[in-house]
Protein 1
Amino acid sequence: MPIARVGEVELSYERGGSGPPLLAIMGMSGTLLTWGEPFMAPLREHFEVIAYDHRGVGRSSRMEAPFTIAELAADAAGLLDALEVESAHVLGISMGGMVAQELVLAHPQRVRTLCLGCTYCGGEGSALASPPIAQRLFEAISSGEREGVLRTTWEICISPPLRDDAELYATFRARAKERPVAREVISAQTRAIVAHDTAARLSAVRAPTLIVHGTADELIPVQNAHVIAEHMPDARLELLDDVGHLFFLELPQRSAELVCEHALVNVQL
């Protein structure tokens, strides 16, 4: 797997497909494997997809110090520089959506279109996981029991009808075990998320934006999609009924269609 030097860190990445570049930014505790082929394969039919692991994750550089969402956005911009990509369509989910917000605000010329999935902008009206959900996740991560962490994460991030889907969970588990993320890195990502706040700045974004959110999301409740949309009145809001946080795993084909349609239609305008 190739490695790109970005300032003082190295980022592992994958690059494949044909068409204009699309940068895929993963969320907390995820890796470039988390996207899954059912979602990524249709994207590669229309785009050259660039997916990468954040600092501290996978084969990217070890985490040396705490970081902010803005610093992760600088990593994303640096990766585009290293790959000689002048601008790209940008897809960010969960924490990756927060990174995408900071990326488009700091480097508007680098973002052709923006897709924000199951994410959060901070400010009035925004809300992260409810106290019971946050406590359940905290206890699982603090236990250090890898199997328990994976199962708890799955049950929180997927909608109730699919929680007992053995095949889907087995695929999720295998990807996570192939490239585990250290507890210290997840803790640092959590602190960066809690400090994230772009609410007062989002109205400055001019890139065509699609907001996607599952209505059954327990990790980042769907109210956050409405808050982001209020700050970005020209954005398109797409709600997926009864779908959980990991919408791209629950509805990979439909999710890929939404991303493709948004990017390709806006390119033609």
Note: The mean pLDDT is 96.
Protein 2
Amino acid sequence: MTTTRAGAPPAVRSERRRDPVVPAQHGAWGFLLLPVVLGIEAGGWELRLVPVVLAWVALYPLSWAFTHVLAAPRPERYRRALALWAAIAAPLLLVSVWLHPWLVWVGLAYLVPFAVNIRFARARRERDPANDLVLVLECTAAVPVVAGVAATHGTWDPPWSAMLTAPTGLAALCCVLALIGSTLHVKSLIRERRNPRFTTAARGFALACVPVVGVASILADAGAWLLVAFGLLALRAWVGHVPTWRPARIGLVELAGLLVVVGFAAPALR
């Protein structure tokens, strides 16, 4: 029998290569990091945020693998990923809860939207706009959680005083608007590129975000920084609407848009 240099039969090694370990939705990493950075900008930085942030990032591929083990046509392909990410996430979660016991209540609350994600996955409707909205809300909820983690530790009571400040609320609003706008824009370029109504909705939403963020910034006494950021996102919805672009290029533009929000949020949320 012919073998590779590693000593394994080609068929076996080919099968191993086909077993995914990391989610293919690379843009989701931006969705994960945006609420973390905005939460830090609104609530401040503390070293005890490190295990919480790492656990948050590890939970994404863990939930992806878990969902596919439950709902994929070939669940065995995702068991290795499930074991790997469970081994990474478990100690990070234990340390996070040890430092911040109130995160137990956060985890229990997240079980509700995660059950919705599983239901969509079982129905083979992961790309449904309703499921996308649930994912956006899951990400946005991390903004006040990060701000709360930076404010206190060692208690079972959530630090509401840090989670419900004006800067945190403004950061959460910017997060949810930016992520919904990005989702609509990307769908209008890929899955719904032949649907002109979807393009109109994506552009209309991007434009509507500008006055909403403007009013919220005034109420939070945050200046006009974020107004500029969402003005650029609205411009992207028009100038950057090129359905012939490859997904990689579209993803880079969206990443740049999220970085713009982060950059202009820094002076606004101080």
Note: The CA atoms of residues 224 and 237 lie 20 Å apart.
